[in-house]
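Local shape tokens:
==================
===
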Amino acid sequence: MTAPHDDTSVLDAFDERHAEAFADRLVDHLNGGALSLMTSLGHRTGLFDTLADMPPATSPEIAQRAGLAERYVREWLGAMTVGNIVEHDPSAGTYHLPPEHAACLSRRSPTDNIAVFAQYIPLLGSVEDDIVRCFHDGGGVPYERFGRFHEIMAEDSGQSVVLALESQILPLVPGLIERLENGLHMLDAGCGSGQALNTLAHRFPRSRFIGYDLSEAAIAKARREANELGNTNVVFEVRDLTDFDRTAEPATFDLITTFDAVHDQANPSALLRGIRRALADDGVYLAQDIKGSSHHHQDRGHPIGPLLYTLSCMHCMTVSLARGGEGLGAMWGREKAQAYFRSAGFSDIAVHELDHDFQNYWYVCRP
């Protein structure tokens, strides 16, 4: 027989100092969330770039240089000042972005611009009502509701993938650069706006490239960039990969890549079996996916764990569920990823980490 609940013992166990510390922590979260919104604004309006190129200046001077409305710039500078991001000299009425801050917030830093990630916060906030509905009714929120997602992902990928392709990523597969130079056939499944594929196509004109993605808007952007670069060796197609295990042409590609694309598929197992089916006997599958464990408690020390789980809940998981999918989510983790790769027919799976990339694992998979 269960003992009756003792309210007195619960009250006696209440730690006032712990409660106050936790309340302070929640206030920090509120301020951090607000600064994330303002950081996104600073990135999108170019204000961080403007400040990075200016000596200490007044609000009207900054607004004029940036081509923006001064009243909005002034209020934004207020948030940046109280958030200790921008330095303010009240006697001179000037504002200054320290070079150490500019290194993390301006486009001067193509690989370390944290302002790029801040854009995810307002984007996810825009679908909060939809997510609340899903908590009550189930289902998911479709890709179409996330207006700028592919644009932000392209900036994110530009930092973690595109600039490191030849220096760090391709060398994970010995001899791959030479094979690309001599000419191979490559597929990028879930290619998004095609930034990585267009970069490779331009660099390796003897190879042939194809990119598949479900988003018509992303594919249209990829095609525009291919035309601008003069890439005649790359093709982009709108394609649903939920039946790729049945529709993939066998033994077609020497190299297949997925960049952060498996976990939000409606049917990730079908995609992976299709990749195995489409891969040549001596081919290689190179997958980038989010660094994490398949066990929540093991991600407590992840430097951006809360951000990644939020992205998973409010985008990656829900877009899969919206299509009747599995809803793996971004934080499916290394253990589950390796199990999925093995189940798809890959017996040789090497897991790599790159110095510049703290948010991803890089999997090199062979039959």
User: Anything to note?
Assistant: The chain has 18 helices and nine strands. The CA atoms of residues 214 and 239 lie 5 Å apart. The beta strands are 87-89, 94-96, 185-189, 208-213, 234-238, 253-259, 279-290, 348-354, 357-366. The first strand starts at residue 87 and ends at 89.
